[in-house]
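Q: what does this look like with s-citryldethia Coenzyme A bound?
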Amino acid sequence: MEKIAKLIVDGTTYELPIVTGSEGEKAIDISSLREETGLITLDPGFANTGSCQSSITFMDGEKGILRYRGIPVEQLAEHSRFVETVYLLINGDLPTGEELDRFSALLNDHSLVHEDMRAFFENYPRGTHPMGILSSMVNALRAFYPEIPERTEEEEINKTVARLLSKVRTLAAMSYRISRGHKVVYPRHDLLYCANFLNMMFDSPVKPYVFDDDVVKALNVFWILHADHEQNSSTAAVRLVGSSRVNLYAAISAGIAALWGPLHGGANQAVVEMLQEIYNCGGDLSPFLTKAKDKNDPFRLMGFGHRVYKTYDPRARIMKRMCDKVLKKLKRKDPLLDIAKKLEEIALKDPYFIEHHLYPNVDFYSGIVLRSIGIPLNMFPVMFAIGRLPGWISQWKESHEDPNWKLHRPRQVYTGRKERDYVPIEKRG
Ligand code: SDX
């Protein structure tokens, strides 16, 4: 029996259907609201607004649950590798051994980029943030790989997906190498996805990169944990831009731009910058906690809080354990990890953070993991983007294949001047 919501406006009762998801989430379907009532809804930041129905990722913010296609992220982090999780998100099920080998080979085939792209990197002003470069380069891919009319739409999409998944990783490593004036390292056919990235980043003619299985595993887990997160800001950007039926490269470029912001994917870099500042100030946490709680101070405790999670982000738990594991394996200590743990311990007992349901999110410990494997600070958001790419692609595909697809075009409530006439310039004054 379909449930109904009743809305009474000026004495008239309107009935709106209630949609129930497979995990029992309920939503009022307002798609006929304006037509029936003349009213629209208003929800700045969309905290109460669902933009779509999706079968890709389930989150329960109160219980701290995250599942990709029904599989808990904890199990994927434990047992899967990134490319297998990519396949799961995009195709809906885990691959067989043969399907995974074929998929891995497909990504390998598309791992090179057009040599002319190097000129783009070499002419970028030194010091440009890698997220700005990546967003431009991904948009530029369309120019190098134009649509082939003879291909079916499905063939075109599958090729574009494989190119993006493999080339974005190559572009990120190239960007780093060229920014340091180092020789570009090409992808190798004999390395799997994550090991290939580490080799492209750090291999050197005078000091060949030495693989550590725990570091490769840590990178697989890092990217698995970032792979999708339902309708977060950058995914919403990909769906919105994609809804205009622009090519997928452009939609992904928009997602990278949205992720760049310090309140979203840029937070992993901002967390380490904050921890470094605390370290440089002698490790005294109280001024930072005081600023974070001061309503008149724009400072936020980076890596804390979440629009959906009102408890510990399940990804942060795994990331925190990974910090200890990788640092121990590499026989390193990171004073920023000690500061982060102390900050978490104090914040979780502080009434402000408790009342505001502020817990560590995925970004709080992720930067420490990246530091431990040698990723430079300004590439932290790029690492998030490589991880989130399969999520953006799977969400874009779901939107693209939706028979009820609509161009995203929100409404507004106008609060400006009422009608008035144009005043000739000589009469203004
Ligand atoms: C990601 O959406 C996703 O799924 C994102 C993500 C993903 O995988 O895609 O999980 C990745 O972006 C994680 C979040 C990374 N960002 C940060 O760590 C930046 C710091 N966090 C905040 O800016 C904030 O918590 C947000 C932006 C993440 C969420 O904030 P909301 O839901 O918009 O809530 P809000 O800004 O309206 O804050 C509500 C209250 C406010 O206080 P009051 O005015 O109500 O008294 O909580 C306070 C805020 O001041 N608050 C914080 C805080 N976060 C919220 N106070 C201090 N420090 C913080 N970090």
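The chain has a mean pLDDT of 96. The CA atoms of residues 10 and 389 lie 47 Å apart.
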